[in-house]
Amino acid sequence: MTGTQSGSDGQRRKAQCLCGSVRFSAVPVSAETSVCHCHMCQRWAAGPYFGVHCGNSVEFEADDDLVRYHSSQWAERGFCRKCGTSLFWNLRGKDDYHVSLSALEGGQDLSFTTEIFIDEKPDTYEFANDTKKLTGEELFAMFSGGQEQSDD
Fold it and tell me: What is the percentage of the chain residues whose pLDDT exceeds 70?
């Protein structure tokens, strides 16, 4: 897959799983990261999922151990078969990737701006950042209204 979208600095960034068996690169669409608190992401990522919208720019270098799990009618999640690292969330049938902030090199320069499925967030934690917060219903309303959203 090749992409032409440009991120905050337009630089392609390397990404990989913990063991290095799955390696890829991507260009963030913007200088932002978002968090998804939905129950599926919590279970998949062992907490909130920090994603970086990379659109169609993901290019795989080594993917023999990549597993794609169809987690819903509209989404798939990618992880490493060897070490289990959560790598990306993708819209099924499209190249619209949200790469794990933890898998992406150089992610520390991205701003944390948005939290989605805030209505599913457990009471056990709060982020100090002042973020835009959307419930699942608000997010789905944005999708059904044809507006693009760069969150997980």
Answer: 89
What does the pLDDT read at residue 115? 97
Q: b vs e for 95-121, b when ≥16 Cβ sit within 10 Å of the residue's Cβ?
A: ebbbbbbbbbeebeebebbbbbbbebb
CB 42 within 8 A of CB 99: no
Question: Which residues are registered as beta bridge partners of 53?
Answer: 98
The secondary structure of residue 27, as a DSSP letter, is -
- Count of alpha carbons within 13 angstroms of residue 86, beta-carbon side: 22
DSSP three-state, residue 127: coil
